[in-house]
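dumping these here so i dont lose them again. two proteins, back to back, each one seq then structure tokens. dont judge the mess
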Amino acid sequence: MAREVVSTILERCKQCYSCVRNCPTKAVKIENGQARVMQDRCIYCGNCVKMCSQDAKKILNSKLSVKKILRSDSKVFAIVAPSFPVQFHNKKDLIYRLKKMGFWQVWEVAVGAELVAQEYERLDYQNNRYISSTCPAIVNLIQKHYPHLIKYLAPVLSPAQATAKLIRLTVNSDDIKIVFIGPCVAKKWEAEEEGYKGLIDEVLTFEECEELFLEYATNDKENIPDQVFDGPAASLGYLFPVSGGLLKNINVYNDILSEEHEIVEGIKPCIELLECFEKTPYIKLADCLFCSGCISGPKVKDDSSLLERKGQILDYMRSIPLGEQVKGKLYIMELHIDLDREFADMHKQLAIPSEKEINEILRETGKQDIKDQLNCGACGYSSCREKAIAVYQGIAENQMCLPYLLSQKNYLLKSLEQRLDAEKRLTEELKGTINSSFDGICVTDGNGKILKINDAFEKMMDRGKDEIVGKNVKFLEEAKILYPSIGLIILRSKKPVTLIQSIRNQKEVLATGNPVFDSNGVLYRVIINIRDYEEIEQFRKQYDSIINNKNKKITSYLDTMRIISHSREFTSTLELARRVAKVDSTVLILGESGAGKEVVANFIYNLSDRKDKPFIKVNCASLPSSLIESELFGYETGAFTGAHRHGKPGMFELADKGIIFLDEIGELPLSQQVKLLRVIQEGAVMRIGGVSPIDIDVRIIAATNSDPGEMVKEGRFRADLYYRLNVVPITIPPLRERRDDIIPLMYFFLDVFNKKYRMNKTISKGVKQKFLEYEWPGNVRELRNIIERVVVTSKTNIISLYDLQSCFDSSAEYSEQKVRVNGIIPLRKALQEVEKQLLTQARSLYKTTYKIAEALEINQSTVVRKMQKYSMDQDKGE
């Protein structure tokens, strides 16, 4: 249809689903929780209109159209439904007001009802069965939802259509407009029914008629002349709006039908009859009224009971003079008007889901089992299964299920409570962290209003929080509390700023401010951090004292792990190891013997998430070739002669959940490399003599002092195993390439062995210089051994060059040369390398650039310039 007879006012729809619950054909589609009337399924019974508590259902308003008709030059007829006495108790008043509005004549539809009854008497009940077609809601119901019953619809126009046709055939005028006035919503559809459009031009409900009376001020009660309906009077046609009214008008076949007719009224009985009509062949005529007679139509406004309304119809019928009734009856019987009617199949089948699809939808709302299907009807559907089908068809939503929403609400509330508790704990922790900071912290909004400060900021400003919080940072500057204001600078520049500020008590502070922007790029917060500048200076001096005091043990922040790292080269290596420690990637540590491969492996283990799990170390070079497989992978009972009778787990099993360190992996025989590769690929080991693999979760760290790439080329190491191990390679530089670590390591080992042997030895300056010049082919292990030897063998408490010479002679080649060249390189690059080495060695021996310049016999400014060139740290305040 071009016009929507019933629609939804979406802003009033409140997700009550009352319209779904009370719609007999489920012609309501739910989208985003709001109900929309599906015109191709709606039968316009008006039930949803009556049941909607929010007045969210809207009926097609015909008042404007009727007023337009009344303003035309046409002869406008009002035809009034036989049920009018229950709404308009005064016939004279009704006719008067209608004509005063502009209607030319007012007719009773009861006249057309008797014409219809006359047609029903002519139907062939001997060979056919019929369902009455007087109720437009029933006609719609059959055409849209029970199309197989269309053949049983009585092929007769409705009383309203018959009345309109009678007027158009008997009134001598070509320009006639007819308006039906009644209690029915479905009549608005009937007026535009395909094939019969034009019989009735417009339909007014009783409610709309009352509203028009008010607009036209036709409610005057005095001096109303006697008014009668135009057209012939009816007799039994007045009974059409009450139950069984059609049958009471059929006389010719009354005896035949007395045993073979059925009067059905109301939604449920009508649908039940249609469901079983073809199974009850004894019924020749079913008189169906979707309402309990038209006297209870959706647009009847009357608080009286059904019996009282029926009485009002009978009282009106008795008020018509018998002579007028007889005269009208005779007139009607003489008429032979064609009232034939045809019907159309308007059924639109919705998709039918499979059982699997229905069950999947049910599971989405937590209905895993039949016992979970409450069938409570809160969604408007009689069962969870029916609603699941509607969801599949796209006319319902899962969110319509009240128990599901309640369970979701409870889940969300619980989740929100947990998140709120977590947020509270986090807030308290953050608050405690901020307040425990020695730095003063101040937070402002995007306009400079101070939102929060910590205790340290309050103490530095010597002002209470209530004097600062809520003020603008401009206030701090104007009151000379903190100036210049770093907050104002950031608000203007919108960039991070660091500067020295003065505070009221004449102290200076180092202030750093950072802007914070929201997702739209708008300045949202400013975070200001201030620190006492005097404390920073004191800390710097203490740090310089520690760094420069070579008579004390020098260790890095890694001292807790017994790792000494002062050189840039080794620190970079440890930084890489620290990053990979937190992940489970395989690591291959490369480096010369004694460089500290095992130390780095321990470092990774202690920083990893597996630090509380096993750490198994295996030196592949020390394992006998005959025992490698059994030691690594284990064996079962009786696997070989001499095997333990209970079997034995291998190193990989012992390292489950932890880390295994395979040192000197390059010494592993090729035959065992294959098995190791399988363990890495499959994450499982097979014991010797075993029949099923054992799953393991082991992280592998391998190490070698050989070049595995060259070994692969020579065929001494499997390429596939090499690529499996070489996920994260870490190369440890030899000690000769990280000379900044030599003196700190020397002091560290000296302290260790002094404590071990209860001595108090020191090292002379000459020995330190020799240590810096030596090439250390044995790396850190050689340095450690030499320190232990001289501590034990030196005769005095000062270890001299004399004590050291014998150690070098016996341990490795020592060169007295000041500079050594191991290969052919460009002269310019060689000079730069020598220059860099000299500066590095001198810096480790002397505290200031002045002393370095004196030792190298160059200007101090040259030392500073060259140290900058080679990116070396310099001491300040010299």
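---- next one ----
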Amino acid sequence: MNLSNAELLRRLGRGENIEALCVAAGMDRPRFDAWWRSETERRVPAGRGQRPAPVRAQVEILRDAWGIPHILADTDDDLFYGFGYAMAQDRLFQLDYLRRRAQGRLSEVLGSEALELDLTARTVGLPTIAAAEWEAVHEETRRLLTAFTAGVNAVIDESADLPPIEFALLDYRPERWSPVDCLAIEGEFRWYLTGRLPVFAVPEMVRRALGDGPLYQAFLQGEADGESILPPGSYSPRPEGAGNIGSTGGDPTPCQGSNNWVLSGDRTVSGRPLLASDPHIAFAAVSCWYEAHLCGGSFNVAGMTYVGMPAVMFGRNERVAWGCTNNICAQRDLYQERTDPAHPGCFLYDGDWLPAEQREETIVVRGAAPVHKTIRSSRHGPIVDELLPPPTRSGEPVSLRWLGSEPCRWLEALLAMDRATSAKEFREATRPWHVPTFNIVFCDADGRIGFQSVGRIPVRKQATRGFRPGCDRDHEWQGTIPFDGMPWVIDPPRGFMITANNRPAPDDFPFPLAGVWSSGYRARRIREMIESKPRLALDDLSPMQLDVLSLRAVECLPHLLTALGDGDTAQERAAIDALRRWNCRMETASPAATIFDVFFATWSGVVASQHFEGDAAALVAAAAGGLAASLLRGDDAGWFAPDRRQPALQQAFATALDILATRFGPRIDDWQWGRLHRLQVRHVLSGRGDLATLLDQPALAVGGDMLTVCNTGSDGDWQATLGGGYRMMVDMSVSPAEMWAIDAGSESGHPGSPHYGDQLNEWMAGRHHRVPLDRKQTEDQARTRLVLSPA
């Protein structure tokens, strides 16, 4: 070979294609593929043997048939050392990637392609927030973070000569880990879950264009908005005159969400609770989730962790099980600040010109000059104009106030939840948690079930979805909703609780919840499935998670068919006939599913184009699902000019058919949903040269869409880019304690590992693997055993 291994990997990482590298290295493609397999396989850490470690007693890492680590120890500190060691064995590059993303340092290794991410992290101040969080965390949390960090650093040391393949591709080595790095990753995940600035910026853009009247209110309407988590009658309604709960529609990212539900013994065959949870997040070749079982000291808990955060986020222990979804209530506001040339460097507030704060940030960019950035802040927070979509910028500075910039105690709460022994104790364990807002359903071994909306929501005097005037004190926060004022219930009379990013409570809830939540279709469909049977068993949960019935289609299709009539062309008539015969299920073999989804996207674009152009219209179209659905029925607000709605609708349908005919040919039978809607499981480096062919999973036809319970949300080209990659089920009647789960992203981040992508086909088939908590069962099913012994 004419090139060294190191040089060949560096050139691959720089984006050179495989064919050219084969020529340069003097090898053919089969030899290249054999070399790649060898390079990746030899970097997979050993799962067997014995290692010296700074532990008090022996720590065992047992891995099952799917590579999931069951970490056994005598003390909490030793357990978390083993936890950090196991996670770093599987995900060291991902740990470093997420750390750099949180610190705003990705450009150092990826170049200018990562500059936008780095500018976001530096502008929001995520590194500073993490340092402040460390000063505020409880002493026990510090101790466990320190133990976890030691485990990560042990793997960094052991793999120094042969690190994960991504380090060789990018030609750098990981720095030592720090406990604050975990908190930085936690802070960046909080930002991902709660930042979402377009949720406010797009409605503001619409309000500026259309005013506050009927058109703006029509744009803000949601879908299935009457489906609330807390049913009416489960709380004391607010007195007359209290602030309203807020608007629900206008979200340009409506497919981002999760499902969970819990049933009491009165609703189950066994007479004991059942629980299901499937959080929705971007699909990836290396999942952000990391499944683990921690057994030792004060812990015996299994479930899913977020990489870099040492705690089980959702799962179960021997007494309690729980699942999480994003609450999507607003924990931030955008303020339009007022400036004046007569008062340079100041912002107006309550009649006074207050000086802006400034800090300087320098971002090192690989292969380019450093980027120097001055970050200005008002009394509300950093100026974030450059983080907003260009069409939403007003020319005046916009600042961000985000509750997540304060200590949030998320990790502290998770650690307490992991050890809770009852529903009551579990609910109390969530009390310290401030950001993000999550909806948690839970159940315990005594048969109690519950729901808690965790986190805090700022109280506002004024309800608005747009920018707030930064100079007006009436738009300042009035503290936060207290823990006991957040939506919650123990043992609801109806015997079940469901959350799916829908509204937490009706409008007469005592506190204003600042709603920016999603469609209620998924929650409604889950409720329908629960109510369709007198009692459910564990075997009923997986089909529910895989359900692809589109309630949007159920509601919209009759109105669409009425508007279309019989059609004007042979192709239109055939398409209309397919829709008439359709069962409204987003199944991979269904051409009608394709026709409906492409039509709805096209129709949303037509709706947006009535008042907006270009990039602004694209933003409005993405956020206008509720409006587009209502305009199939009628146009009370006058969104369209008189007599223009009907021809626009028919033209949108014709355009959708043209799109499909161009893409798949004229035969409607060839327009199956699975040909258009394909699961994309990509590596973070797959955009470089030919690395996609080496690191990505093959695209697969997948059912569902952004609004079905089987959530497979689409990008602008209908590719399934995010959804319920992790699915979990718990039956509290089974003893010893166990859970069932599957992760499409699988356990290992090493392309050479047998556990890189090995769960994907199981996920596609709707199967789960068993995760026991009993120590003997864990040992019996172990495939490998690694022992960390006191040095």
